[in-house]
Each structure stands twice: as structure tokens, then as C-alpha cells.
Target: Putative oxidoreductase
Amino acid sequence: MGETKLMSLKDKRWSLLGMTALVTGGTRGIGYAIVEELAEFGASVHICSRNQTDIDKCLEEWKDKGFNVTGSVCDVLYNDQRQNLMETVASIFHGKLNILASKLLLY
Model:
């Protein structure tokens, strides 16, 4: 596993090990940066984006860094896709979601 900020910190009070996070719009910009920070501190992260190619590219980068990140396609403007996303996240994280970072919340 790649070195993380968590491993380099003497004070582990910022550890996110065991925490789960969902980041919408996680393949670009602020969302991408949020995923990097959460994963570096040990969180398991799920991202969504409208484009599978973007998701695959990012997941490969994060895998190479040793981050625990999964992803799925979702356009959060549509209720049925949001519903499916939450079912996916609930399944992956066994019903436990600690952190939500949504592009919709950032505007």
C-alpha cells in the first residue's frame, strides 16, 4: 500500500481509518481533491460521475497510490440515479456512510 498522510503523521488524531465517504463529482476539480484527501487519511471512498471513462481513469490512479476507492456512474440531477447510487453505496459500505461530499452542496 502506498504511503499516506496518515502514516506520516505523528499525531494520529486525524485518522479516517474505518470511515466511509461518498463524493459526488469526484473525478475532477474540488471533488477529485476531496477524494485524495479523504483516501490519504485512510477513509474508504466511493465516487460517482456521469462518465464511466473518467471514473475508470481516476480509479486506476488511486489504485496505484494504494487508496481504497470505488466508483459508479450517476447523474445526481435524476432521482432514480440518486436512489440507485445510495443502494450501491449502502451495499459496498454495509449500510455505513460517515461522510458525504456532494458537488451540489458546494454551490
Observations:
- The chain has a mean pLDDT of 89.
- DSSP finds five helices and four strands in the chain.
